[in-house]
């Protein structure tokens, strides 16, 4: 037991879920209450496309699988990824708590049209169109791809890095093509990334530059 705790003691950070999940669930209960509508003109030019439900749902495997991989293979990458993800997720909860927001442009769809429309209809029943800014789907997808690109274990695997980048882009596109989010929600996620990225990854870059300088001086 002691060896297990010593080896996997970093599991503690996942207890963040005990904070995030109840908080998010409470926010989701605000259905029917007034909220600030997130909408920009560009949203009206983006057509609904049910096929994007595939990358949208792959997000869960993309994020969860990457966290699990780093949990077992690289404690440093794991901590950096969790720091990035959980910091942004907390900020998102705070924004939605203090600034209730949502969208109002989901179209009427026929769930019997095909399996993709059916899955979208199920998603919409489970996930009301509130608490959308900034988009966690977009933010976490960017965070996972950044982690892959920084990982010493993965960044040299070019097909994997390219595949990760493509999936990240498809997931981000899915949020607007499925009418889950406004474009402005994604912009908010990009701004949040710009702020939190230096916190989670700048220390790594500084350390590498310092090490390179010491090696050069030798």
Describe the protein in words.
The chain is 67% helix and 2% strand. It is mainly alpha-helical and 218 residues long. It has one domain (42-208). A two-stranded parallel ribbon has the order 1-2. The model is unreliable at 211-218 (pLDDT under 50).
Q: What secondary-structure arrangement, pairings included, does this model have?
A:
Blueprint: H1 2-8, H2 17-28, E1 36-37, H3 53-73, H4 75-98, E2 101-102, H5 115-126, H6 136-150, H7 158-177, H8 183-217
Parallel strand pairs: 1-2
How many beta strands in the DSSP annotation? Answer: 2
Structural class: mainly alpha
Question: Approximately how much beta-strand content do the residues carry?
Answer: under 5%
Q: Roughly how much helix do the residues carry, as a percent range?
A: 55-70%
> How much is the average pLDDT?
93
Q: Please, how many domains?
A: 1
User: Kindly, what is the distance between the CA atoms of the first and last residues, rounded to a whole number of angstroms?
Assistant: 44 Å
Oligomer state equals single chain
Which outline best applies?
Answer: globular
Main β-sheet, in a few words?
Answer: 2 strands, parallel
Task: Please name the defining characteristics of this protein.
218 residues; mainly alpha; two-stranded parallel sheet; 67% helix; globular; disordered C terminus
Short description:
The protein has 218 residues and is mainly alpha-helical.
């Amino acid at each position: 037991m002691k060896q297990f705790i010593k080896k996997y003691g970093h599991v503690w950070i996942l207890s963040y879920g005990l904070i995030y999940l109840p908080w998010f669930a409470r926010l989701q209960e605000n259905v029917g209450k007034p909220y600030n509508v997130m909408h920009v003109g560009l949203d009206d030019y983006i057509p609904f496309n049910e096929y994007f439900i595939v990358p949208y749902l792959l997000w869960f495997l993309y994020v969860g699988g990457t966290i699990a991989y780093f949990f077992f293979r690289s404690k440093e990458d794991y901590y950096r990824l969790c720091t990035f993800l959980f910091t942004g997720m907390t900020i998102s909860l705070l924004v939605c708590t203090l600034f209730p927001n949502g969208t109002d442009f989901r179209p009427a769809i026929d769930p019997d049209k095909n399996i993709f429309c059916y899955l979208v209809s199920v998603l919409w029943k489970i996930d009301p169109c509130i608490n959308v800014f900034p988009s966690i789907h977009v933010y976490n997808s960017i965070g996972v791809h950044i982690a892959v690109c920084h990982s010493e274990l993965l960044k040299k695997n070019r097909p994997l890095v390219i595949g990760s980048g493509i999936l990240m882009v498809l997931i981000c596109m899915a949020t607007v093509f499925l009418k889950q989010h406004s474009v402005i929600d994604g912009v908010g996620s990009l701004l949040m990334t710009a702020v939190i990225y230096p916190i989670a990854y700048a220390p790594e870059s500084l350390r590498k530059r310092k090490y390179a300088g010491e090696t050069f001086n030798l």
